[in-house]
Design goal:
Blueprint: E1 2-6, H1 11-22, E2 27-32, H2 44-47, H3 61-67, E3 70-73, H4 77-90, E4 93-96, H5 103-112, E5 117-120, H6 126-141, E6 147-154, H7 164-177, H8 181-184, E7 185-186, E8 201-207, E9 213-220, E10 225-232, H9 236-249, E11 255-257, H10 259-263
Parallel strand pairs: 1-2, 1-3, 3-4, 4-5, 5-11, 6-8, 7-8
Antiparallel strand pairs: 6-9, 9-10
Helix pairs in contact: 1-9, 3-4, 4-5, 6-7
The chain binds nicotinamide-adenine-dinucleotide.
């Protein structure tokens, strides 16, 4: 099967091209970048310091969708909304890892999923998807006398906050407690904010260095504290998960799928 990569010069884009080239049974259909990127016009393998692939990086994204069985997109919210439209037009499966999507972006992507298969996940690692399941179970067992705080740290270049994964973990905890996350979340605290309301799900964000992605969910009760943590030390875990999702999604009926569907969890 043929997999296309959009945004191939990004931190994740490079890992994704490498993962496709290193996976048996899949071929690289092509790779794109935004107009104006230095990468445009170069052989994608050579650009990554590997062997030539005969695939030149270009900006014709619709064409990439037309020649691919699945396309993987870790770019920006605006680009991903446009790409979801191309996926629907070409009826090509889309694996979408971009975070920081607004409710309007999510609605546009859901519309596109009426015409093609889209796997959307804030985190494609197997470990984090297991953590989400554990977080939901823990939140269902521990009542709201246990305060839930989600702490995350990422590299200094990350532009959205809290991370998509932290919000996904918050959503999992809210599901466990049978509440809506946006009715109980506190995404930042500053100044005289008063005592912590019972049932709140809080987020704390750290940014710095080259941290790939650390997440901890704290359940703080009276006299005890439970912490569930995941630390990613390489972006390769997200890339291999996304390639696995692309293989799973190609040829599936239209619909919005999650990494849980891919992993059969
Ligand atoms: P990055 O800035 O390094 O890469 C983004 C790339 O997309 C850039 O090279 C940019 O030029 C390119 N791009 C932008 N618009 C484009 C367009 N219209 N067409 C083609 N290419 C375009 O960012 P990154 O660190 O690689 O992260 C990208 C996204 O993936 C972020 O939202 C990040 O949070 C998310 N992410 C998700 C996961 C996950 O598992 N779901 C893991 C890591 C990162």
């Amino acid at each position: 099967m043929k997999i296309g990569i959009v945004g191939c010069a990004g931190r994740m884009g490079r890992m994704l091209v490498g993962a496709v080239l290193d996976t048996d049974g899949v071929d690289l259909a092509g790779a794109t970048e935004r107009a104006g990127s230095d990468a445009v016009g170069r052989d994608v393998g050579e650009f990554l310091g590997r062997r030539q692939t005969g695939r030149v990086i270009d900006t014709d994204t619709l064409r990439l969708f037309e020649v691919s069985d699945a396309v993987i997109d870790f770019t920006t919210p605006a680009a991903s909304v446009e790409h979801a439209g191309f996926a629907a037009e070409a009826r090509t499966a889309l694996v979408l890892g971009t975070t920081g999507l607004s409710p309007e972006d999510e609605a546009a992507i859901r519309d596109a999923a009426a015409r093609t298969a889209i796997v959307c996940a804030p985190n494609f690692s197997v470990g984090v998807n297991l953590l989400m399941l554990l977080a939901e179970q823990a939140a269902a067992v521990l009542d709201d006398s246990y305060d839930i705080e989600i702490v995350e740290m990422h590299h200094r270049h990350k532009v959205d906050s809290p991370s998509g994964t932290a919000l996904g973990l918050g959503r999992a905890c809210a599901r466990g407690r049978k509440v809506a996350l946006d009715e109980v979340w506190c995404k930042a605290r500053d100044g005289q904010v008063g005592a912590r309301p019972r049932g709140e799900i809080g987020f704390a964000t750290l940014r710095g260095g080259d941290v790939v992605g650390d997440h901890t969910i704290v359940f703080a009760g009276d006299g005890e504290r439970i912490e569930l943590s995941h630390r990613a030390s390489s972006r390769a875990v997200f890339a291999s998960g996304a390639v696995r999702a692309a293989r799973w999604a190609a040829g599936r009926p239209p619909g919005m799928y999650s990494m849980r569907d891919v992993l059969g969890m």
